[in-house]
Amino acid sequence: MRYNAYGILQVASSREAQMIDVTADVSAFVRNSGISDGICHLFVPHTTAAVTINENADPDVVADMLMGLENIVRPGLPYRHAEGNSPAHIKSSLIGVSGSIFVNDGGLVLGTWQGIYFCEFDGPRRRSLSVKIVRTEHERA
Amino acid sequence: MRYNAYGILQVASSREAQMIDVTADVSAFVRNSGISDGICHLFVPHTTAAVTINENADPDVVADMLMGLENIVRPGLPYRHAEGNSPAHIKSSLIGVSGSIFVNDGGLVLGTWQGIYFCEFDGPRRRSLSVKIVRTEHERA
Amino acid sequence: MRYNAYGILQVASSREAQMIDVTADVSAFVRNSGISDGICHLFVPHTTAAVTINENADPDVVADMLMGLENIVRPGLPYRHAEGNSPAHIKSSLIGVSGSIFVNDGGLVLGTWQGIYFCEFDGPRRRSLSVKIVRTEHERA
Fold first, then answer.
1. Phi and psi (nearest 5°) for C128?
2. Which domain holds residue C135?
3. Residue A133's CATH number
4. Would you call B77 and A71 a contact, using CB atoms and an 8 Å cutoff?
5. What mean pLDDT value characterizes chain B?
6. How many other CB atoms are found less than 10 A from the CB of residue A66?
7. Chain B residue nearest residue A93, CA to CA
8. Are C140 and A4 inside 8 Å of each other by CB?
9. Inter-chain residue contact A101 with B43, CB threshold 8 Å
């Protein structure tokens, strides 16, 4: 065990609303940690961004998700927050800023079609995604 | 400690949208693990399903939740994903695929009215729900 | 280590829908635990409340979030649940009853603008927020 199981990944968004696939980065972090079994916790230290897990096979899915969210969280309501980004704050809490994924046999355990997405709702910006792995020790039957 | 604290529960849905009460299964898994104190992590390895905790006393609540979600995530938008199940993907990320429940004294700690629900949004299908328990050791005062 | 890393915070709401900043209480719990490194898990043992992390600088943000949620989860649908609080149940599952925050150097690691909010959707009531810290041990490089 040579690596600390805590790190911060840098994510750069290029549009106002964007879902950025960070699966490879998180997966590399887990592999490099040397931890074979545990929970990989993700945390977004921002209030107009989020993290989620969804399909990474067809890019139309994330485009549809962003379009659907725009339809759900209406931009035209009488929001009071002067920055004008209240819908982005609401989307952040609907999707959530924390999540956790199992680590088995030294790697992330994701479903066949799953990828990890950093969700930008008020970009473009430079953002952070914090990662921390809690190691578990299993009894073998 | 005779059991491994990682397992996969099988869940079968019988309708397109359905909330299936898995409290008894998760609870039995925790009891059988022999772990007295920790965190029980749940993870759904699918992109059109989710896991949540809500009322399990009146079955009308989950019926209302599914109806309410159908109203929130509109089926008729100009989605591009060819499979036609974009609303199910959006519901999955709104509800979320990961969750955690405390384990105290060898059992799940749920509120009086709470149950754990596997949420099917694109069924009927056979699904999996992954469970992993992180053991904690408390200092006693 | 003199304190047990599990506790229950009491939260009193004074309105039907309210976001109550509990950052100071959770932060004090973490400091008092004496745990320097780990994950702080939050759990709401109720079915019409939730917990989230969002901006705590401008109070207009939480007012806008409650107004936006009211617009998203329509009160006037043909809900069947006799208590009449189905929208509150839906909001609870959309925002979520569990969350986790990193603990580094003996304190919570929150972004510059982030605070922890207990979300009341069916108040006023007396509520609980459960907190449990899982200690992690890092290897130092």
1. -120, 150
2. 4-75+83-140
3. 2.60.120.460
4. yes
5. 93
6. 20
7. B94
8. yes
9. yes
Q: Which residue from C minimizes the CA distance to B41?
A: C98
Q: Are B42 and B117 in contact (CB under 8 A)?
A: no
Q: Which residue has the tokens 């039995």?
A: B28
Q: Tell me what ipTM this predicted complex has.
A: 0.95
What b/e readout covers C96-105, taking b as 16+ CB neighbours within 10 angstroms? Answer: bbbbbbbbee
Tell me if C79 and B95 make a contact (CB, 8 A cut-off).
no
Q: What SS3 string covers chain A?
A: CCCCCEEEEEEECCCCCEEEECHHHHHHHHHHHCCCCEEEEEECCCCCEEEEEEECCCCHHHHHHHHHHHHHCCCCCCCCCCCCCHHHHHHHHHHCCEEEEEEECCEECCCCCEEEEEEECCCCCEEEEEEEEEECCCCCC
Cα–Cα distance between B19 and B118 in angstroms, integer? 6
Burial class (CB in 10 A: 0-12, 13-18, 19+), C130: buried
How many structural domains does chain C have?
A: 1
Q: What is the pLDDT of residues A39-98, one digit of tens each?
A: 999 999 999 999 999 999 999 999 999 999 999 999 999 999 999 999 999 999 999 999
- Beta-carbon contacts below 8 Å between A and B: 108
Tokens 């007396």 sit on residue: C126
Nearest CB among C47, C82, C130 relative to B109 is that of C130
Q: Over the stretch A97-123, which tens digit does the pLDDT of each residue have?
A: 999 999 999 999 999 999 999 999 999
Residue A135, chain C, CB below 8 Å: the answer is yes
Residue B4 pLDDT? 52
Please list, in sequence order, all residues whose beta carbon lies within 8 angstroms of the beta carbon of residue B17, skipping any fewer than 6 positions away: B66, B69, B70, B120, B121, B123
**Least Cα separation, residue C50 to chain B (angstroms):** 10
pTM of the full structure: 0.96
